[in-house]
């Protein structure tokens, strides 16, 4: 059993073990449904604004497209993960439903900086995917070194993330290793 101190200073013992791959994927799928709902609402609002205010004739630069993609999609979703994982639950809605949580390497509550690092790295591929699409449209999808780099980040970093979870006995991903965090299953409180 691991002794941890809750956010209100109560000492408790909780049985923890590293979360298995399927629980982590299950938690992400639940969170993805939440993200997908957010995307649908945001897209609906965005299209309505585009049609009503601009008559469907708004042309944006690549920088403007990237800025909108970042501030409307990537940043809010990343903040959802960060705020959820620094909360007293140490996990998103999906993690809570699957009874897993994010902790530091030593099984204590992860620090704010660890959670920020973890999620910033985790969502790099999503930001790169947005940038790849906007760069590709700007170049009429003609090849360029930047476009190949963005494609690599968007498509292969997630494969490395998942691969590292599958090969490591503790199930930690690259972003967990870099942030010095781990995802654990929560057992019964023993007091």
Brief digest:
The protein is α+β, with helices and mostly antiparallel strands and 191 residues long. 62% of the residues lie in helices and 14% in strands.
Order of strands across the main sheet: 1-2-4-3
User: Topology as H/E string?
Assistant: EEHHHEHHHHE
List segments where confidence is low: pLDDT < 50 over at least 5 consecutive residues: none
Q: Helicity, in percent?
A: 55-70%
| Average pLDDT, all residues | 89
Shape: globular
Radius of gyration using CA atoms only = 19 Å
For the largest beta-sheet, the strand count, sense and barrel status come to: 4 strands, antiparallel
Terminal Cα separation, in Å?
10 Å
Derived from helix and strand composition plus strand pairing, the structural class reads alpha+beta
List how many beta strands DSSP finds.
4
Strand content: 5-15%
Number of helices: 7
Write the layout of secondary structure elements.
Elements (H helix, E strand, L loop, with lengths): L1 E4 L5 E8 L2 H34 L7 H25 L6 H5 L2 E5 L7 H11 L1 H15 L6 H23 L6 H6 L1 E9 L2
Antiparallel strand pairs: 1-2, 2-4, 3-4
Helix pairs in contact: 2-4, 2-5, 5-6
């Amino acid at each position: 059993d691991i002794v941890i101190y809750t956010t209100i200073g109560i000492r408790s013992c909780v049985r923890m073990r590293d979360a298995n791959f399927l629980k982590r994927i299950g938690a992400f799928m639940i969170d993805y449904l939440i993200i997908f709902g957010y995307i649908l609402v945001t897209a609906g609002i965005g299209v309505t604004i585009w049609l009503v205010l601009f008559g469907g004739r708004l042309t944006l630069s690549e920088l403007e497209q990237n800025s909108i993609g970042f501030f409307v999609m990537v940043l809010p979703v990343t903040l959802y993960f960060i705020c959820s994982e620094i909360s007293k639950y140490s996990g998103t809605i999906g993690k809570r439903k699957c009874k897993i949580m994010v902790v530091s390497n030593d099984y204590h509550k992860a620090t704010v900086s660890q959670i920020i690092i973890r999620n910033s790295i985790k969502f790099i591929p999503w930001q790169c995917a947005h940038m790849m699409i906007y760069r590709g449209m700007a170049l009429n999808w003609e090849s360029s070194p930047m476009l190949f780099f963005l494609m690599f980040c968007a498509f292969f970093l997630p494969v490395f993330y998942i691969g590292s979870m599958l090969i490591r006995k503790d199930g930690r991903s690259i972003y967990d290793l870099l942030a010095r965090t781990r995802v654990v299953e929560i057992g019964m409180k023993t007091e």
